[in-house]
Design goal:
Two copies of one chain form a homodimer. Chain A is an alpha+beta fold. Chain A is built from twelve helices and 18 strands. In chain A, helix 1 packs antiparallel against helix 2, helix 1 crosses helix 9 and helix 2 packs parallel to helix 5. The longest helix of chain A is centred in the N-terminal third of the chain and has 15 residues. The first copy, chain A, is globular, with a radius of gyration of 19 Å.
């Protein structure tokens, strides 16, 4: 157990923005909420997965919605009391700890807000090791777990408690409610036993986010003999994919998602080459001069070429210079079930999944 | 208390189709389900509103959705166990009796199915005295009551329990779930005390439906000196609006509703005149030669000119000969709050509400 206060929150937010692979919403708003919550309620206890007894319940907290909307439509703060009441009543059991379900943007922060406000510990685990656009895209689906009961509240005070026959139905019904309620809602789903959390969760993800964030923040203090870029790639385990200037951003909010494509004109050694990255909330694939360099479920991250600060899809702007980096996904995503669930073909890309490290050879 | 068996069900279904004012779905499917339920579980006890103690709970049961879909997508029979469990758990109280919320088509029948299958009495009351397309269109909204908690299940087994800040939000969120689940779902909403039910409900509506149905069935045995048409108008308290042959039906399923317009060419004494009726699930207005003859909240009913059997909007067909009849709505609909809630302007008609009996003078 260790405490998460303002300093840790800064680093987690920054690192989670990288793991968010373009999605999860700008962590800035989430960070302000997390800072406010720990200021008001005190630091949050971060516990290891092994500190949760097998039979105790962990409740993931997240926002559902298009990242562009998340930035404009905050939570009102009382959502989590209502959510935990619904889940505890519905499951007839107490919640032992809060956990994140995805390590991306605002969804790395809101579980901290919930843990602080509810006085519960936060588990150092998630269900993706990154961010994904749809509710069923979690390792716990691979583990055969139900997404529901799902509790859903909006900032106006509408509440919803649902059970569905499949996790895809939780996504479908949750998504239409989310859209009708203005494009973003607070949710708890996949409430699970400690045993399930330990078996299928991505352990240590909060700490990983924090370490990544700290490294980015101190990028200029990189070890002698290394450029900041080399240090960044070494530290993150990232595979260099491309470096360029944003020449075009196509963006569309459709069915409650941010869809789009960002085009890049090569700079430096890449001069004369062209690349694009497609996204659905998160980046889906990176194509350089017509050749696929990386696809989901691996993470495709755009970072500023100077500061190495991650650039989420909703912050893409003409003229910005970015490096595109591929990060290897959690091993469960590389199983047949993982690729079926969140591989390139699920997102409409006409290619098999080939791990980013092989594509980059 | 009296028993509702197969004979009563036949008459209620027929009469409710008239009060449905074109909507509520073809009662045929609902009737088959009600007949099956009483055959299997025994007749249903119909009780007067006054037989319900003030503090006991009455749970309205209905289907939500476009009538054209209701006809093709039945209930699986186990929905009501799930619905009552959600409502009783959520309200931490037992349900004393089932009641219809609208007296139209399939929604006059499903409360009988639920009462039979749950072994509960059915109250001789509803919240409209007719059918209306949206959830907030009930006398209980005029009485200041909340539509939620609302329990919603689909035939696949997805369940949903919601509370909303307004009844319009229950409609909005319920409607998108309904649409996502295929266009129709089973719901319980406005679960209320006996006191509220007695104060704002439309008393005796099941019996009225039954009497209307019996009269239509025996229309040929009308009293001497009266034509069947005269007897029909006299018995129903209906105002004659038009008689014609259907010359065109415009139909659109949009946002989960059946919208449309039926055009009529005058026959008999009406030869050379033209009329149309607009609908949103239910008939909204009747216009004859450019002059409005009736609007919501009064009931506009199309009946076969020979059999006087009501013709719901989803059964409108080219060439069919119909009489259009206006029935006076329940008095609460004629209050300012009632007209705001379900008057012509709510449905986009550019006219004030004028009672049908005045328009027909």
């Amino acid at each position: 157990m260790r405490l998460i206060g303002p300093k840790e929150i800064e680093d987690i937010a920054l690192g989670a923005a990288l793991l968010g692979a373009g999605g999860g919403g700008d962590p800035y708003i989430g960070k302000l909420m997390a800072l406010g919550a720990v200021k008001e309620c005190g630091p949050v206890r971060l516990i290891d997965p092994d500190e949760v007894p097998d039979e105790q319940l962990c409740m993931p907290i997240a926002m559902m919605g298009a990242p562009t909307v998340l930035n404009e439509k905050a939570v009102n703060g009382s959502e989590y009391q209502e959510i935990i009441r619904m889940i505890e009543d519905g499951m007839d059991n107490k919640v032992y700890a809060i956990m994140p379900i995805e390590a991306g943007g605002v969804n790395s922060m809101l579980p901290i807000v919930a843990a602080a406000r509810l006085g519960l510990p936060l588990v150092d685990v998630d269900g993706m090791g990154r961010a994904f656009p749809e509710l069923q895209h979690v390792t716990f689906t691979i583990g055969g777990m139900h997404a529901t009961p799902m509790a859903l509240v909006d900032e106006k005070g509408n509440t919803n408690y649902m059970t569905t026959i499949t996790n895809k139905w939780a996504e479908r019904i949750g998504r239409v409610i989310c859209m009708e309620c203005g494009g973003s809602v607070s949710i708890a789903l996949y409430t699970m036993t400690g045993k399930m959390m330990k078996e299928f969760g991505v352990h240590g993800i909060v700490t990983r986010s924090e370490n990544l964030g700290r490294a980015i923040r101190h990028i200029k203090d990189c070890p002698e003999g290394m450029t900041p870029e080399e240090y960044f790639l070494d530290y993150t385990g990232g595979h260099y994919l491309f470096k360029g200037k944003i020449s075009d951003v196509l963006r569309e909010v459709r069915n409650g998602f941010n869809f789009g494509r960002v085009k890049l004109e090569g700079i430096g050694a890449e001069k004369g080459r062209q690349a694009y990255v497609e996204f659905q909330n998160e980046n889906l694939c990176c194509v350089v001069d017509g050749q696929i360099k990386a696809t989901v479920p691996d993470m495709i991250c755009l970072v500023d070429t100077e500061t190495f600060i991650p650039v989420p899809t909703d912050a893409l702007k003409y003229g910005k210079r970015v490096m595109v980096v591929g990060l290897e996904c959690f091993h469960l995503w590389r199983t047949e079930a993982g690729i079926d669930l969140a591989g390139p073909r699920y997102f409409g890309l006409e290619t098999d999944y080939i791990p980013v490290e092989e594509r980059c050879k």
